[in-house]
Amino acid sequence: MSESTATATGLDPAAEEALVRDGFWRKLRRTAGHVPFAEDAAAAFYSATDRATPLTVKATLFGALAYFVLPTDAVADFLPLIGYGDDLAVLLAATRAVGGSIRDSHRAAARRFLQKD
User: Fold this and answer.
1) 37 and 88 in contact (C-beta within 8 Å)?
2) Does residue 45 surpass a pLDDT of 60?
3) CA 63 to CA 69: how far, in whole Å?
4) I need a labelling partner for 68 at 20 to 30 A (CA). Which of 36, 87, 90, 105 fits?
């Protein structure tokens, strides 16, 4: 994936990864009780940061997760009910695109994280 590749966030892939690594857990902790896709987001993070995950899959997942982390996106997250709808749509599209790259071990780690919080 080249630096000039357009992404859903408008950031280059390296910037998306840095944004996610820096702010993902903070955003997930703040929103976990409000978003029905918290486990899927956490599993996607674990997959994106797994050394065994192919680079193209990592780029797709980091892009979707960066969209979730960004405070400004197509629909403001503070709007009741619909605020996270666009985040969910982007995450679902990404996870469907990468298929089986989100393994059972990633989902188990996500469940453990959410249960302890």
Assistant:
1) yes
2) yes
3) 10
4) 105
